[in-house]
Amino acid sequence: MRAECRRASTLLHPDWRHVLSFDREGRLYTFYDDGVLYKRALNGSLHWRRREDGGPRERGTLTRRQAHEVYADVARWAELAAGRLDAECARRITTEILPWTPERLLAEKERFEEIYRPIAILPPDQYLAIVVQATEGCTWNKCSFCSFYQGRPFRAKSAAELREHALAVRAFLGKQLLLRKGVFLADGNALALSRTRLLPMLAALREVFPGREMYSFVDLYSGERHDPADWRELAGLGLRRVYIGMETGLDELLAFLNKPGSAAQLGEFVGELKAAGVAVGLIVMVGVGGRRYARRHAEATIDALAAMPLDAGDLVYLSPFIEDPLSRYAQDRADAGISPMSREEIEEETRRLALAVRAMGVRAARYDIREFIY
Ligand code: SF4
């Protein structure tokens, strides 16, 4: 039995087939169990993934009963460790980890739901952010492929309401804040709010989470509501990077997806952001538009990215497209007689695009929305 009692986390290695990690509240964070990796979401649900002998990665969510069994297993490992480790680590297990019974871990669901609406998605480099829901939903909510905020009307919190929410988030995360980094303003279009509404909101977040950098999604049509001076002011208040659902550099395909904007407008917007000192993360959907658009989608996207003033501080996310069979996109695609790309074709295209982006000196990473857990 080995253990690492770090400042921000506790790691237990009972043997080479098992590794457990906990936050400093003592709540399970991850559990590697002989080929299966379990990750606990903040709402107490437990998610697993594994890959068998070079096959595709499998993933899923345990039922409450199954999660209870795994949490009970985790408690047994922790009890075993408490009897075998030095006094400092044993004390940490007894005082922090063991009080989190399976029932108490599962009951985090209720605490989570008192604070948050479901967190639909984050960019991968923000999985360890502190999420605050400055808004709920998305102002547009009409992109044909998107089901993130369906049934959730757009609503913005007041600065006072956001401050209360941020305090509740801080109390809920507790010492898990040691593991987390920046503050992510969710949901869809927090930065769509006017400057006069945003400034007191950011001030409230700086008060509750001092010294933390801030991040958010922004869409072209809502981002354009701010002028360059606004962006400079937001950068001065700690806004470091914004994430933009570019989807494609091909205007015809963007219109097919019912998303406003154009590659030229996006290029101009990115230029303004960069000049204001705000980095960007651009998300491209690989495989959207099926085989009919594949070549033109790839070429126009690379051309559009090449025309932007991107540098090593920016990111291009290549997100293998996953079609929701109930979406308007699925219906439009079928009506237009467009055949979808296969998984293999999409993966191959993702690899090709990543090479092309990296050749521009810009970081490219895969963004699988199924991996997201908060
Ligand atoms: S703007 Fe973004 S969040 Fe809103 S509907 Fe489109 S893809 Fe979804």
Structure description:
With 374 residues, the protein is of the alpha/beta class. The protein has 2 domains: 105 residues, no CATH class; 256 residues, Aldolase class I (TIM Barrel). The protein is built from 13 helices and 16 strands. It is globular and about 65 Å long. The structure holds iron/sulfur cluster. Iron/sulfur cluster binds next to loops.
Which kinds of small molecule does this entry bind, naming each only once?
iron/sulfur cluster
In helices, the fraction of residues equals 25-40%
Please give the count of helices: 13
**Uncertain segments of ≥5 residues (pLDDT<50)?**
none
The counted number of beta strands is 16
**Which structural class fits the helix and strand makeup?**
alpha/beta
Task: Give the percentage of residues in beta strands.
Answer: 15-25%
The name of the CATH topology of the largest domain is TIM Barrel
What spatial order of strands do you see in the largest sheet? 1-2-3-4-5-6-7
Q: In one word, what is the shape?
A: globular
Count of the separate structural domains: 2
